[in-house]
Each structure stands twice: as C-alpha cells, then as structure tokens.
Amino acid sequence: MKRIVLVRHGESQWNKENRFTGWTNVDLSENGIQEALTAGKLLKDEGFAFDMAYTSYLKRAIKTLNNVLDSLDQDWIPVSKSWRLNEKHYGSLQGLNKSETAAKYGDEQVLLWRRSFDIAPNPLEAQDSNSPLQDARYKDVPVQYLPLTESLKDAIARVMPLWECEIFPQLKTNDNILVVAHGNSLRGIVKHLKNISDEDITGLNIPTAVPYVFEFNDNLELVKDYYLGDQDEIRKKQEAVAKQGKK
C-alpha cells in the first residue's frame, strides 16, 4: 500500500478574520498552530512515517508543515517547496472580508468566486504591492506564469505539472508522501484523483489541518480516501468553510 496525505494549512489570521487571502503571505493564528500540532499527533498515533514532503511558498502552509513534522518527530525528511502549490489567487478580492463582500455582491456571486470551476475575480494591477510580480520569492518564476487572478481551473493548470511530473511519480519509489498546501490547490488535486466534475467541485470544502489520506495499490491506482479524526468534528469544520462566503 502506498499513501499520499493531503493537509490544508491550519487556520490563518485571515481565516480567523474571514478575509480572502490567496497569495497574500498571512501567518497562522494561535489556533492554526495548535491545529497543525494536533494533525501531526494524529498522524503519529496512526503510525505514519513519511519519506518526503511538499508545500507551497506561503508561510501558513510552510509553518503548518513544520509543526506537523515536529509533532511526528520527522522534521529531518526532505521537503520541497513550490509556488505551484500556492492557494488560488483571488485577485482584487484579496484582503476583503468575505461576508461583507457577500452583502455587497450577493451570496451567489461570492460562491462563484470562491468555489466555481472557471470564474475568476477581477485581477490585481501588475504594480499593486500585493502582486506576485513585486514579490522577491517569485523572482525565478517566468512572468507569464505569475497570476494576477485565478479561477479554480487556472489554479489546477498551475498545480498539475508539479503533481504529474514530480509528486505522484514519487510513489514509484516511496510509500508515504505528505503534501501541505491550501484549500483550492488541494481541491484541484482531489478533483483530479477522484474525477470530480466541474459542476460538483463547487461542493467540495476542505477543512483546515485535517489529514486527508489517499491509498493506492502497487499499480498506483486509487483504492480509497478518508479523513483522519472525529468524523462529526470534520463535518462541522467543512460546514464552517462552506459558510464563510455568506453575508
């Protein structure tokens, strides 16, 4: 049996404030740090031993991974960081409160911006201080790949080359891989793995810092997937994510 475990970062400061975050480099809240430590302990209790890990360029994911590995006492394993695992870029919505935005534009419009497959918010200006074009961490990324806004479709197109060419092929020689990233970059991976339709992906909400396990046979065919932890609590966290964009 081979396994890939997906973990969305713990609660960030802007999750706590119910703001669109995207590529903004927001830190974890105190609760988010505890969520990450708890996720690591849960994985340790279940006997997970990882061969390698992947994360994004954003500190909320990096710090979640660090805390998970610390709880596991596996902070010595190889870690690869990639901008391709960043959250979906929310364009001009970044920094805005989701409920206030829903009050202004309506729940349905905000749901489309947050969860639809191919509708992107209005873009940032290239010279905006929050633009990835102005951020040193992306200086080695070709300009044409740096988004000023994204739909989920765009984010998946960004994530898939890393997934198909680097992460998933690692299962040929490794048994357990950990990926700590973001709600939408992980939604793209789950959509791919479970063949979820463009319409049904709207209903997929990934809770913060809950290990999502995908098991594969020796032919790298998906056998089953499941969340670790109290299932009632996980459902409550999923429902809370779904409600974030309502006025």
Main attributes of the structure:
8 helices; 6-stranded mixed sheet
Characterize the structure shown.
The protein has 8 helices and 6 strands, in the order βααβαβαααβαββα. The protein is of the alpha/beta class. The chain has a 6-stranded mixed β-sheet. The longest helix has 16 residues, at 30-45. The N and C termini lie far apart (44 Å).
Output mean pLDDT. Answer: 95
Please give the count of helices. 8
**What are the segments in which pLDDT stays under 50 over at least 5 consecutive residues?**
none
**Strand proportion:** 5-15%
Q: Which descriptor suits the 3D outline? A: globular
The percentage helix is 25-40%
Distance between the termini: 44 Å
Radius of gyration: 17 Å
The largest sheet, given as strand count, sense and whether it forms a barrel, is: 6 strands, mixed
Strand order of the largest sheet: 3-2-4-1-5-6
Strand elements, count: 6
Q: Spell out the helices and strands N to C.
A: EHHEHEHHHEHEEH
- The chain-level structural class is alpha/beta
